[in-house]
Design brief:
The chain is an all-alpha fold. The chain contains 23 helices and two strands. The protein has one domain. The longest helix has about 55 residues, at about 590-645. The chain is globular.
Length: about 650
């Protein structure tokens, strides 16, 4: 377990600065203030000015930078008024709240929800006939249908704060807010039930918490290490130089993405590789260094394995040519469906291993005497179970109110929960830098398995209305909830109060995200920056051309599940087996194209260091890689703040 505990400092706490539980009123207050500020920052970066995409990877640079600023102020406060300085637990609770709020506002969550309110009414035309095939079936209680209100949203030039505009949005926004809060409550309660098994019994390290724990240390020891500045300085200087080079083209830019290996491979079957960029991103190299070696190796190895599959498929005349497209199940070798099968296997396998523990959890819930205790848990198991049942019931009821049948709604959320548990487990165990799973959500799986012709129109509209948070899972909130529990366990000895803090962050983050978009869009117009609107073309295709089952879907997912099971079996049988099933699952994603080379570099460096210096030398060099991450994050944060303040367009910065 030593390798997985990287960066987590368990040194005794100085009595001068005793640790307090992170859950305090002032921590909640500061978090409640910082969540909407970060939400607005994320919205401006990712959707308005395209200055950065912090929620595209697992470690959000805006949240890390916010924690850094808090710690700088807190270190000064410790010198001046140590009695009122924040504890490490309080700083990390605030950080966790910011992470959850940012995830909600992220590129794979609420940013995809906004066009759902109005887009089909705005874009209806005689050609697409949406006024006939779509709009009469749109739920009035979830959409905004008044023409003047819609026109202002897209064209801008007016204030949102008018009674008729606010009134038109208030009902649908309130309904979706309830849905989002219920969804995150269900996730959080699942995490509570798994918390003791994963974090206490299995000692999953959550490697991505290493950096925030080191930053928030009460003595600031990370900043006193020369190796940290050895990593920070060159990276910060390089990113700063490139920032000015983008602003002033006369300066030569040092490219961190110098080539695309696929550009020189235009003849078949090699052209099936499609996209294979060489990148040297210091953030991903740093995160990769913190990951377990077998998972790190498997991530880049299976990326090349997928590319080999594409080439071989094209040579045999089977390649679909649209590997990362919207429609699942149609493109051999069905990489996304294989990956989904591997995720599902891992979630099921993890649950199976925990079956005795879950049986004890059940005994606690129903009041049967057992050795398992829940008095130190963030929430009692009985309340957590009620939260899951209540949340799931509410979500299914919400879907049925949209017109979906009971079995479709139930199957949808069961698949969603399985995928969410798999993603959260992967983050907790390995600290994977990406987990996007593009275009592999429950709506794709269900329509591929049964065919769109098996679903009535209201089912299809309901599935399309759930597409916004299933298009990809880059900013999935559930892993951040588990990491929040881990950080509080480590620095404060208890994660009591985490549930209240994270649900408060969910509510404030949701309201702040709606407020940010509506304020901005009625000012500059949604057409000025655009939204992801794939929902409606997909829905139009479902309705206009109903299809039968995609017969490749089940075999493709079965192959992914079976191959992952084989890898896991070999891993359990042979100690030095280098291939990990979750490396196979994560490597087929779109974002892996960007991170495969940094992970390969991190693996090579880590392997050399551990081979010649052992675990001790590996730990010694951790500050260099944390410094590299921070160097990138600090400059990116400052650059985006300047860009938002001066309203610099993406192409000039």
């Amino acid at each position: 377990m030593g390798e997985q505990q990287v960066g987590v400092d368990s040194a005794p706490v100085s009595p001068e600065f005793p640790q307090r539980a992170g859950f305090t009123r002032r921590a909640l207050l500061v978090g409640a203030v910082l969540v909407p500020l970060n939400v607005y920052w994320v919205v401006q970066m990712e959707r308005i000015l395209y200055l950065g995409w912090p929620t595209g990877i697992s470690l959000f640079f805006n949240a890390v930078f916010t924690l850094l600023l808090l710690q700088v102020l807190n270190l000064a406060l410790r010198r001046l008024r140590p009695a009122i300085a924040f504890s490490q637990g309080e700083l990390l609770l605030i950080y966790s709240m910011v992470c959850v709020g940012s995830a909600i506002a992220g590129i794979s969550f609420m940013q995809n929800l906004m066009p759902l309110f109005t887009y089909s009414f705005r874009m209806a035309s005689p050609e697409n006939k949406w006024d006939e095939i779509l709009n009469p079936y749109m739920p009035e209680w979830l959409t905004v249908q008044q023409p003047t209100v819609i026109r202002g949203f897209y064209e801008g030039g007016m204030s949102f704060y008018q009674l008729h505009i606010v009134g038109a949005w208030l009902g649908p926004v309130a309904m979706w807010t309830v849905f989002i809060v219920a969804l995150l409550l269900m996730m959080l309660c699942i995490n509570v039930l798994l918390h003791q098994r994963w974090l206490t019994n299995e000692h999953l390290a959550c490697p991505l918490i290493s950096l925030p724990i080191q930053i928030s240390d009460h003595r600031g020891r990370l900043f006193g290490q020369k190796l940290f500045w050895l990593g920070f300085g060159p990276v910060a200087a390089l990113v700063t130089w490139n920032s000015f080079a983008a602003l002033y083209p006369i300066l030569p830019k040092v490219s961190l993405s110098p080539a695309d290996l696929a550009e020189s491979l235009r003849s078949r079957p090699w052209s099936a590789i499609d996209w294979m960029p060489v990148t040297f991103d210091p953030t991903f190299i740093g995160i990769g260094y913190l990951m377990p070696t077998d998972f790190l190796f498997s991530s880049w190895f299976f990326y090349l394995f997928w590319k080999a599959q594409f080439v071989l498929s094209d040579a045999l005349g089977l390649f679909g040519g649209n590997v990362y497209g919207e429609q699942g199940g149609t493109d051999f070798p069905h990489a996304r469906l294989q990956c989904a099968g591997a995720y599902i296997l891992f979630a099921i396998y993890s649950t199976w291993l925990a079956r005795r523990y879950l049986a004890q959890v059940y005994h606690v819930i129903v009041g049967v005497p057992t050795k398992l205790r829940d008095d130190q848990e963030p929430l009692s198991y009985r309340l957590a179970a009620l939260g899951i049942i209540g949340g799931l019931t509410g979500l299914i009821g919400f879907s049925m109110a949209m017109g979906m049948r009971f079995w479709v709604s139930t199957a949808f959320f069961l698949i969603y929960c399985i995928l969410a548990i798999g993603i959260t487990r992967m983050r907790a165990q390995f600290g994977a830098p990406v987990h996007d799973l593009h275009f592999t959500g429950p709506e794709v799986i269900l329509t591929s398995l049964f065919g769109t012709q098996s679903f009535p129109k209201q089912d299809l509209i309901g599935l399309a209305f759930h597409y916004w948070y299933n298009r990809a899972y880059t900013s999935h909130p559930m892993p951040h909830q588990m990491e929040a529990m881990k950080m509080q366990d480590h620095v404060a000895g208890t994660s009591k109060g985490v549930v209240v803090a994270l649900m408060l962050a969910a509510l404030i983050g949701t309201v702040a995200c709606f407020g940010s978009f509506l304020h901005i869009d009625y000012d500059i117009g949604a057409e000025a920056h655009g939204y992801n609107v794939n929902t409606f073309p997909i829905l139009q295709g479902w309705l206009r051309a109903p299809q039968g089952p995609e017969w490749a879907t089940m075999p493709a997912m079965g192959v992914g599940l079976g191959f992952a099971f084989f890898l896991q079996t070999m891993r359990m049988r042979y100690v030095n087996w280098p291939f990990h099933p979750l490396g196979y699952a994560v490597s087929g994603s779109v974002v892996m194209n960007i991170v495969w080379m940094p992970l390969l570099i991190a693996w090579a460096l880590k392997s050399l260091i551990t081979k010649f210096g052992g675990h001790r030398l590996y730990q010694k060099f951790v500050p260099i890689f944390l410094g590299a991450i921070m160097g990138d994050f600090v400059v990116l944060s400052i650059r985006t703040i300047v860009g938002i303040t001066l309203h610099l367009p993406a192409w000039s910065f």
